[in-house]
């Protein structure tokens, strides 16, 4: 029988006008150190985003979002940040920023399967 492991997650948000603090959730980053798991999933609903913030350059935004899963994976494309440990990459990605792409505060939970939990969080928080 597999046992529950603790995990941390943060929701990835698009905040078009930082001063208004309005956002749309576009993804989730989940870290489960016991399983050596760090992954991000992103689903950008362009139609919804255009209604919310019609002046955003979606192609540029998409390029910035695409690097997040690469950082999680420790890909060479992630540059020097990709060479950090998994835990350091998670904390780097979830650090407080005042930019258009932000993350929620970090939340903690328990799960047997980190990948299944990531999918559940995507359904609950993003889709």
Q: Can you describe what's shown?
A:
Strand 2 and strand 3 (37-42) form a beta hairpin. This protein has one domain. The protein has four helices and five strands. The model has no long low-confidence stretch (mean pLDDT 95). By secondary structure, the protein is of the alpha+beta class. Strands 1, 2, 3, 4 and 5 form a five-stranded antiparallel β-sheet that branches. It is globular. The protein is 34% helix and 26% strand. The protein has helices spanning 46-52, 58-73, 86-93, 114-125; strands spanning 5-14, 24-32, 37-42, 101-103, 107-111.
Q: Helices, strands, pairings?
A:
Elements: E1 5-14, E2 24-32, E3 37-42, H1 46-52, H2 58-73, H3 86-93, E4 101-103, E5 107-111, H4 114-125
Antiparallel strand pairs: 1-2, 1-4, 1-5, 2-3
Order of helices and strands: EEEHHHEEH
- Oligomerization status of the protein chains: single chain
Give the total of domains: 1
Average predicted confidence as pLDDT: 95
Runs in which pLDDT lies below 50 for 5 or more consecutive residues are none
Whole-angstrom Rg: 15 Å
Helix fraction? 25-40%
General form: globular
Tell how many strands the DSSP assignment holds. Answer: 5
Strand content: 25-35%
Strand-pairing-aware structural class: alpha+beta
How many helical elements?
A: 4
Cα separation of the termini: 31 Å
The major sheet is characterized as:
5 strands, antiparallel
Concise synopsis of the structure shown:
With 127 residues, the chain is an alpha+beta fold. The protein is built from 4 helices and 5 strands; from the N terminus they run E-E-E-H-H-H-E-E-H.
């Amino acid at each position: 029988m597999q046992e529950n492991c603790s995990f941390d997650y943060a929701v990835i948000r698009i905040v078009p006008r930082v001063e208004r603090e309005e956002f749309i959730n576009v993804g989730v980053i989940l870290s489960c150190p016991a399983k050596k798991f760090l992954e991000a999933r992103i689903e950008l609903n362009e139609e919804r985003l255009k209604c919310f913030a019609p002046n955003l350059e979606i192609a540029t935004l998409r390029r910035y979002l695409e690097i997040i899963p690469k950082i999680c994976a420790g890909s060479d494309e992630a540059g020097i940040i990709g060479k950090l440990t998994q835990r350091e990459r998670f904390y780097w990605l979830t650090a407080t920023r005042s930019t258009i792409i932000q993350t929620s505060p970090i939340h903690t939970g328990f799960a047997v399967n980190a990948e299944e939990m990531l999918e559940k969080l995507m359904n609950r928080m993003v889709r």
